[in-house]
Amino acid sequence: MLPAIFSTFVLARIALGQPNTNATCNPSFAWASNSLRQSPCLVAAYLGSVCDDGLFFVPALDNSLSFYQGPTVAQANSCGCSSAFYSLLGACAQCQSAQVLSWSAFSENCTTTYSQIYPDNIPTGTAVPHWAYQNVTGGTFNSTLAQLNLNAPESTANSQPTSATLPPGSSNTSSPKKSKAGPIAGGVVGGVVFICLVCIAAFWFIRRRHRGVALVPTPIGYYSDITFSSLQTPKLYNPSDPSTFPSPSASM
């Protein structure tokens, strides 16, 4: 049975005024919470909010076959393309007994990736565990490795580092991605992928709107500026209220 794709990047932005999450971690993942007792899901929301006007929401995953998807080309930014953000989301997925995408799959739409580092200023109100800076290049977030770094200092708005401590001779770097094909071929492939993503998103939206609940899980996506407006309830006919009169076309 293939893992279900449950649509982050829905990581949805909502107008609550601060980073938030409704994901609940299994008690066995208490080690993944920071010194402020914030779950990795909430810490991920804090890091994502830096590039999204302070508003970022990490939703709970539906089932064990769900996972958080990386940003689209349009949504890719320094926050979402940071391996620290990815590792926190990975821990968030695992603490819900769900799946984790590989770093390469998660960051495939990033022009530049930030390995073992968070390139922006850490926001106030949170603390980033040192294990979030583990090396995931060529692999996937490793919770076993993370638990070996629980005593290392956290990163906060008032302290450093915002990257992992690496052995001599190595360094934290941002890596511009290079296309394996030529620029033209890369552009064609990118265009096809973008069109496919747009079609999938449109199909998902229409199906959810008309059927209420999707029949198949989709990846939690990274959609920004989502707004929800309430539907107006139609007025009942009132002979004294002209606004309730049927339109001329309705009487034809």
TrEMBL record:
Gene3D superfamilies: Single helix bin. Residues 154-176 have a biased composition (Polar residues). Keywords: Membrane, Signal, Transmembrane, Transmembrane helix. Residues 154-180 are annotated as: Disordered. This is Mid2 domain-containing protein. It comes from Mycena sanguinolenta. Residues 1-17 form the signal peptide. The chain crosses the membrane at residues 184-206.
